[in-house]
Write a structure and sequence with these properties.
Low-confidence stretches: none
Order of helices and strands: HHHHH
Largest sheet: none
Radius of gyration: 30 Å
Helix content: 55-70%
Number of strands: 0
Number of helices: 5
Length: 117
């Protein structure tokens, strides 16, 4: 990932076709020594390819995978009818939240009767 990030930084910095030295220099600047074999393999795979095309191809692969999550949404779906029945069974309570606070004060501590509004 570091090699890819350094390559992309070089491209964003104006180097349309970064080489191994450019990527190594970027990584060295932040104290990272790249793996020579990984660097070689990376450049073999991107040689002659457009970065935008590679990113688009990667995005299409991610789209093809669909949603990989499942976290909280899946749990709620599993509850289905049982969860809906529980919610319907809860009695409604009267709430005084809609009524103004005693003394006519608003949330800023003022009085609705104050002049100068």
């Amino acid at each position: 990932m570091r090699i890819i990030a350094a390559y992309m930084l070089a491209v964003l910095g104006g180097n349309a076709e970064p080489d191994e030295k450019a990527v190594t220099d970027i990584l060295d600047s932040v104290g990272v020594k790249p793996d020579a074999e990984a660097l070689k393999v990376f450049f073999e795979k991107v040689k002659g390819k457009d970065l935008d095309a590679l990113l688009e191809a990667g995005k299409q692969k991610l789209v093809a995978l669909g949603g990989l999550g499942g976290g909280p949404g899946a749990g709620a779906a599993a509850g289905g009818e049982e969860a809906a029945a529980e919610k319907e069974a809860e009695p409604e309570t009267d709430s005084d939240d809609d009524e103004p606070a005693a003394g006519g004060m608003d949330i800023f501590g003022g009085d609705d009767e104050e002049e100068g509004y």
